[in-house]
Amino acid sequence: MVAAANEVSTAEGAPVDKIAVERRLAAILAADVVGYSRLMGADEIGTLDALKAHRAELIDPAIASHRGRLVKTTGDGLLVEFASVIDAISCAVAIQRGMLTRNAAVADERRIVFRVGINIGDIIIDNNDIFGDGVNVAARLETLCEPGGICISRAGNEQVRNKLSLSFADLGEHTVKNIAQAVGVFGLAACDIAALPEVPIGPVAKPPADRRWAARPAWRAAAAVAAVAVGAGLAWWLGRPAAVPEPQGLVGQVEAALAKALPGLSQSARREISQGFAALAQHRALAVAPVAGGTWRTGDWSSREQAEEKVLEKCQQVRDEPCALLASGGAVLAPGADGR
Predict the structure, then answer these.
(1) What pLDDT, in 10s, does the model give residues 23-42?
(2) 215 to 194, 210, 219, 320: CA distances (angstroms)
(3) Is the whole-model pTM more than 0.90?
(4) Pairing of strands 129-131, 69-74
C-alpha cells in the first residue's frame, strides 16, 4: 500500500492541508446485465426479484469464496475488488457457469445474462469506493465482452498465462473511451466457459507446451493429420450405435452428437453447449475441435452458408486446429455432409 499526498488550493488560490490518497494494486471485476432496460420494461418486479435471487444464491457467495470485496452495485451492475487476478477470473467463471445452469429453464426473453470485464491496475481508495484507470479499464472491457463471456486486459492475461487451466483468445487492441492508450483485450466466450470441466479453475500443474500453430512444426503436422482425420473420425463417432435411444428435439440431438464427437466433455457441459446453440437466432452453426476437445458456436447471420463459414473460421482461429461442423440451423449434420 502506497500513500501519496496531493496539494489542493482554495478558490482564492491559498493552499489548504494536504490530502492523503490511498492507492494499491488490485484486480478489478466489473459486470452488468445484458439488455437490462428491455428486461425491466417487460417485467420490473420479476427482473428485480430474479437479480436478488442470483445475488443471494450465486454471485455474493462466489465473491466471498474467492476472497473478493463487493465495492458497490449500480442497478444492473457490480464492481468487485480482488487481491489476485486469479481469484477474480475464477470467481467470474464460477458466476458465468452458474448463470448457465440457472437460465437453463428460463425463457430466452427473460434470461438474465452478464458480461464481465477484469483488469489489474493501480486504484485509488476513497471511503471504501475505488477509482482510477484500473477501474475504468475494467468497465470498458465489460462493454466489449460478449453476453455470457469474460474479457480481461493484456496485463491480466500476462499475470495468469500458464497459471490457469484455461486460456483466453487474443481479441486485439481496442481504443476505448477516456483511456489514452489502446487496451489489449483477451476473451473467453460463453461456449468455452460452458465446456470447461466441472472442477475448480486453479493453477495448472506445470506450464503447457507452446501450441502456437507456427511455432511448433510437430504440432502443425499433427493438426494437419487431424484435418484429414476430422471427417472420418467425426463420422465414426457420429455413426456409432447409441447405447440408449436418441433424445428428441434439437437440444437432445446436439447433446447426443457431442457425446460421440467429444466424449471427454461432461454431461452438464454437453447440455449447456446444446442449449446455448439452440437458443441462438437463425442462422446458426456449431463446430467442434476434435484434438483440443472444444467447440465454437455462432448465430444471427444472414444466411446458413455465412454462419457455417464464420463458425469454422473462428473455431480454427481460437482452437489452433482444423474444425468440423457438427450442427447447422435446426439440425445435426449427417457424417460427411457439408451442411449445404
Answers:
(1) 889 999 999 999 999 999 99
(2) 29, 8, 9, 11
(3) no
(4) unpaired
